[in-house]
UniProtKB/TrEMBL annotation:
This is M48 family metalloprotease. Pfam families: Peptidase_M48. The keyword Zinc applies. Residues 79-227 form the Peptidase M48 domain. It comes from Cognatishimia coralii. The lineage of its organism: Bacteria, Pseudomonadati, Pseudomonadota, Alphaproteobacteria, Rhodobacterales. Its cofactor is Zn(2+). The keyword Protease applies.
Amino acid sequence: MHLKLSALLLASSVLAGCVEPTSAPPAQSTPVGPSASDEARYTRVVSRMEPVIERECVARVASNVNCDFAIILDEDPAKGSNAYQTLDRNGRPILAFTAQILPEFQNDDELAFVLGHEAAHHIAGHIAETRTTATTGAILGGAIAIVLGGGQSAVDIGMDLGTTVGARAYSKDHELEADRLGAILTQRSGYNAIRGAQFFERIPDPGDRFLGTHPPNAQRIAVVTETVQGL
């Protein structure tokens, strides 16, 4: 269901699959909003992909997982270019796009691939996995601080560090898994995932940093290409 952000309260603080801006806007610049053609593309792609995404979700996940996606366009002009997946307080999956990201897409395939990628995070259960590893990391970090004889401040630091490490432990794997499934969702919706993945060529490359949240862009493009060729 396509909704505006004001219609929902996003209760979850855990996000998956954030797409960063292609570049930081100059200070005090006026954000460039989407054109009528950008908004038409968004509506067209969402209408075409949503039933495919929900059908694939039902086919792939347990019966108790919510597959009723709410696809949201956040029209706040102050928000930066971004796309992400989260859950509302009732566990309903939210796929959110800010208005500022719409002009970043050069064609329908790019928007479709990003939409498929974000949906894939929910279908693959990445938010739940991240919460589990973050909680485990926090417990281990606090326990290590206690064993080493640290006080409460040391325990707090250990838990914070453990949370960060735990949350990022499988982040790159999650992104690549979402790229693979996102490519399948894109193709099954009638779009070209390889062409869509060219979006990665224009966003900052995170490289292969230790505990980074995203894999190198070249690796992601290669995964999408391999997946489509395999289909």
